[in-house]
Amino acid sequence: MNKIKLRMSIATLLATLACAQPAAASDFAERAKATQPQHEGQLTVAGLKQPVEVVRDKWGIPHIYAKNTHDLFFAQGFVAAQDRMWNIELWRRNAEGKLAEVLGPEYVERDRFARVMKYRGDWDAEFRKYHPEGPVIFKAFADGVNTAIRLALTQNKIPVEFELSGFKPEPAWTPQTLLSRMPVWAITRNASSEVARALAVKSMGLAKTAEVMITDPPTPLRVPEGLDLNDINPNLLNITRDASDFDFKFKAAAPTPKISQAFLPVRGPESGIGSNNWVVGGRKTTTGMPLLANDPHREVQNPALRYWVHLVAPGWNVIGATEPGLPGVTIGHNEHVAWGFTILNGDQQDLYVEQTDPTDANRYRYKGEWRTMKVDVEQIAVKGAPSERFEVKTTIHGPLVYEDAARQRAYAMRWTGYETGGHGYLGSLGLMQTRNWKEFTAKVENAWYGHHSLVYADTKGNYGYVSTGLTPVRPNWDGLFPVPGHEGKYEWAGFVPTSKLPRSLNGERGFYGSANNNVFPSIFPNQKVPDFTFEYLTPYRYERIVEVLSQDRKFSLQDLSRLQGDVASLPARRLVPLLKNVTSDDPKLRDAIQRLLQWDYNVDADSVAAAIYEYWLLKLNPLTYAKKLPDSVRGYNRYDIRRLIQWLEQPDADFGANPNQERDRILLTALEHALANLSKLAGDDPSKWTWGSIHQARFTHPLVTPENAPLVHIPPVPRGGDSQTIQLTGSARESGADQGIGASVMFVFDVQDWDRSVGLNTPGNESQIGSPHYADLAEAWGRNQPFPIAFGDKKVKEVALQRVTLKP
């Protein structure tokens, strides 16, 4: 069968559209229109106790007004399923390990890993850990989703995405579905870097690995006593990485061909995915009250990852963003407080190498004796093939993620995600009802177990920073390598009390911020900080935030919104001046050098110099790293721009007898390769090499076909910035072309008047094909032009577009 590539070029797409039959496109549009859910009038909904009003505004945000807690979260689940049914059906299947049931055998491995990640503790304690009414909230939300699915099945109004996919949604949601650990895995894992570091030491020794792979804060590398590096199987790297990086491929459901990629869970911290947040105190704002900004970053995708919702009931009044398969909001504000987060990249995992019994693979050695693993049997249904029986084996350290029968080794994962309350985001259910700093920090301590940097503001004028997360105490090792499990020498000694983690209120500097970096030396210069991790992201976004917010002036809400779109590159300020003494006989190279030296270091979408710089940087990495890596290492691509800058600014003996001369040769060679790449990509006229014409966000839907492309296709959005600018727009591929990651949602909250707050989502707040809110926000997101976030009753009425009453 024919297939359509996910990342098709503009020319290919236009040709595809030209070949599509207008009648077929029209027919598809009619089918999509006929399956839209009811958003106006009255709708009878089984399971409600009292009527619920749902007001959808001009930007597709549902404002849900209920009379009790049960109905509020039931309605949220119902509405989320109306707006995102196909999206959350795949979210559920990914969470529960049931993708192979509808996508086929190639997803069995993915399903196995989801079963390994499953929480297997006390469910009642788990539900209550996030909120005292947790059992009610989780069941109500799941019931609401199931009711929306049943209604769509009964009314024959299943979204057209299911027709294209070849399967139907199932009303199979449970409270346990919502507490899947798969979304958490993406934000807490470092097992893959443990494996990568061990393999690097095996290939090039401790000294070279320490030079190439940065630790922050700096710490000497030590292979844990008793660890045999020969036990570190390279296949482990695939297991830990592929759990979050995978292609979503749909088998063609006749007669329509289709192909797509994953838009659900995303890569972990080592991919460069990050977030920004900051809060500015009243003495530095034009309002005299705090302003709070946040733009969490994930993969650019369609359907969107985030979902805006407003929840109102007795005791509840909160608006913000969540994932559509989760109750409540994860970031947002209520009537009293606002908060935003960035991932702190804490080390919350350890990989244990277990010695297994040669005569019985279910036994492992621990402290001189053989123990039997706990075995849970899982049955995985597979489309077009027999179901598969899968055993989840667990040692004292955690479930196995890999077994090496030849060496009698098994690899167990110890992870905070397995702890009660270990979901990364749902601790926000407690934050949603807090009224002040004391209540907020108390709730953070209870269940916010993923490592995050939270910024805070309240209507009393307070602003603060809170670090949070379940932090293992490792008495005699640092977590940078896998550890042997058989002797019992490397055991967690409990957790650092959350109340002991760094926090600050109303600091003298007048603002707080974070960007996935090590913020502690800046915010807490005289305080000893627990060893969260040694793998923070680069500091350049944070340094730019501090550079701007330290200016002696007052900031408006519009200033902070513009700062979210800031594209000043601090690395460019360091790298480009190195070209001052580089010369060439080639006029094209001389012209490129001149453009770069005259550049203002802003990676603007309309800048030619920015495009030259980005491709130059792309080529600099392998050429420079080649000077530092032994000949035995090939294909290394864990580049770190911090090392690149250091090595090029201060070239050493690895660069040869004349380090500066060899450095300059590398700078020029990389530029030559960059120009050749740009010429091939965008033609021979440099004046047309604008960064935005090359670097674009493409919201390609996984189910795009020639028939539906006129309705489903979203025009590509030109983008400025890169992976080191505040407007983070890193590429997903080594080509350096399309934007792969960036802000999944954005907002700036004004605590003096909540209705002055602004925000963005992309490409739309709803995802159902044919919805007017399927892609209505993509262009504004590309221009960094937010819309008003209505909160008060009067403001919501002003922007209301549709109103439906859900009746019991």
TrEMBL record:
Record keywords, A-Z: Hydrolase, Signal, Zymogen
- The residue range of the signal peptide is 1-25
The superkingdom of the source organism is: Bacteria
Q: Does the keyword Signal apply?
A: yes
The family database entries (Gene3D superfamilies) matched by this protein are listed as:
1.10.1400.10, 2.30.120.10, Glutamine Phosphoribosylpyrophosphate, subunit 1, domain 1, Penicillin Amidohydrolase, domain 1
Q: Which InterPro entries match?
A: Ntn_hydrolases_N (IPR029055), Pen/GL7ACA/AHL_acylase (IPR014395), Penicillin_amidase_A-knob (IPR043147), Penicillin_amidase_dom1 (IPR023343), Penicillin_amidase_N_B-knob (IPR043146), S45 (IPR002692)
Subunit record text: Heterodimer of an alpha subunit and a beta subunit processed from the same precursor.
What family is reported? Belongs to the peptidase S45 family.
PANTHER family the record matches? ACYL-HOMOSERINE LACTONE ACYLASE QUIP (PTHR34218:SF4), PEPTIDASE S45 PENICILLIN AMIDASE (PTHR34218)
Q: List the protein's name.
A: Penicillin acylase family protein
User: Which organism's genome codes for this protein?
Assistant: Steroidobacter flavus
